[in-house]
Structure formats: structure tokens, C-alpha cells
Design goal:
alpha/beta; 8-stranded mixed beta sheet; 8 helices; 8 strands; about 35% helix
């Protein structure tokens, strides 16, 4: 299973990442990665990128250092109504939008509240394409309810490489990721492996996520890293509000 893209990559604009777009793309080119992305934290994250970062991102070229760069955002799920921290008209212009829980934006509560928040975000926003790092020590969710909603709304589920790292502060155990993958397989929900890179040498580091996806026996057609057309097609499917 060959991976050609990694879009969940942060730059210095996220406030707590350490590399520039040029550094990220230079590393991507060095390792032979054809496609990468900019997914800086939206303004609801303390220290996150300014609103203008997302409205001006289109001033960047499409190809940097020989690598096609998709322009996106990692939004914050802000409350139990599933509201995100960028307006719909900005989200609609992004190549992709990840929405995730972060403690600085949404203090952890309980499984019921977290589950309701992410389900409402999936249902409310056609331009909330990807649910980021669903295996999170601090944000317990009803995994089956979330995956079933992802199937209904055509939302992509991220398999976050960093969440599989035992040294990560979010790490909850590999078995949680395997449960998520098993349900994605059951409900035919597309998955996207992501590095969640906060430094350039981590761009394209998808080894743990890839190993888990292979172990779960996910059909290659559901793994969006294997073809840019698959990735873009899944984004467009969510935008159209196509239901299964």
C-alpha cells in the first residue's frame, strides 16, 4: 500500500509548531512525497493562526519545492453544538478542513457531550471534511455512534500517526485506534493517515498509522493516502452532502 500524501501538517503559524512551509515541502520532496498540506490551527486555539492567515492563504503558489500543497485548516470544535472557529464562507474556500478537539478550545467534559459535539459538527458543516485524531485520551467518545454518523455524512476519519505514539500526551492505547478502524471497515468509512507534523522532518511520517490500517485489513479504496483522486473525491462527496 503506497502512500502519496500527508495533509495534516503544521507550520510556525500554528503558534506551537517549528517549521515553515518551505521547510515542510523541502522535506516532503526529499522523501518523495508528492502531495502535502497546510493545516494550521484556527484562531480558537490559543496561539493559533490569525483569521487573516486563512483568508490570505490563496496567495501561496500551488506547488512549492516541487510538491503540490493543499491549503486547509485544523479547526477547533468549540462547544457541544459542534460550532467551529472559522465562518462557513472561509471553510468553503479551503481545499480541506479538519475539525478536532483541543483542550485549550473546549475543556474536556464527558463522553455524551463530546459525542454530541462531533456528531453535530459532522452534520452541520459540509466543509468539515475530516474528524481529526478521534483517539484522544482527554476526549472520550461513543466511537460507534461517531463512525455511523461519519458514514451517513461522508465524513473522513483520521488515523493520526502521533496519536499512536506512546510518548504523545493524547495517547490512549493502540486498541482504541484498532476499534475505530474496525468500525470504519464495517461501515465503509474512508480513512486518512496523517502525521500531524509540528516539525518538518515529521512530514510524511505515517508508519504507525499505516501499520494499523494494514493490520485492520482496510480495503485500499477506503485509504485516501493512496491516491490524490481518492482524497479529492472524498472531500467533494462531503461537500455535496451525499448520504450513504
Amino acid at each position: 500500500m503506497n502512500f502519496v500524501l500527508d495533509v495534516h501538517c503544521h507550520t510556525v503559524n500554528s503558534g506551537h509548531a517549528y517549521s515553515t512551509i518551505s521547510e515542510n515541502t523541502s522535506h516532503a520532496a526529499k522523501i518523495g512525497l508528492k502531495y502535502t498540506g497546510i493545516a494550521d490551527h484556527a484562531p480558537g486555539m490559543p496561539g493559533g493562526a490569525h483569521f487573516y492567515h486563512f483568508t490570505n492563504i490563496w496567495s501561496l503558489p500551488e506547488v512549492i519545492n516541487g510538491v503540490r500543497v493543499f491549503k486547509g485548516a485544523e479547526c477547533n470544535i468549540m462547544d457541544e453544538d459542534g460550532n467551529l472557529d472559522l465562518p462557513a464562507e472561509v471553510l468553503a474556500r479551503m481545499d480541506f478542513v479538519i475539525a478536532s478537539f483541543h483542550r485549550g478550545s473546549f475543556p474536556p467534559k464527558n463522553k455524551e457531550v463530546h459525542t454530541r459535539a462531533v456528531i453535530r459538527a459532522m452534520e452541520k458543516y459540509r466543509d468539515m471534511h475530516i474528524f481529526g485524531h478521534p483517539a484522544d485520551l482527554f476526549f472520550d467518545i461513543d466511537i460507534e455512534a461517531v463512525i455511523k454518523t461519519a458514514a451517513q455524512t461522508r465524513t473522513i476519519i483520521e488515523i493520526n500517526n502521533q496519536s499512536l505514539n506512546p510518548s504523545s500526551y493524547r495517547y490512549k492505547g493502540d486498541e482504541v485506534v484498532m476499534e475505530i478502524l474496525g468500525l470504519c471497515k464495517k461501515y465503509a468509512v474512508p480513512v486518512l493517515a496523517s502525521s500531524d507534523a509540528h516539525f518538518c522532518t515529521l512530514v510524511g511520517e505515517l508508519s504507525r498509522a499505516k501499520e494499523a490500517i494494514l493490520a485492520a485489513g482496510i480495503d485500499e479504496g477506503l485509504v485516501l493516502n493512496t491516491g490524490v483522486e481518492r482524497f479529492l473525491g472524498a472531500i467533494e462527496s462531503k461537500r455535496k452532502g451525499v448520504l450513504s
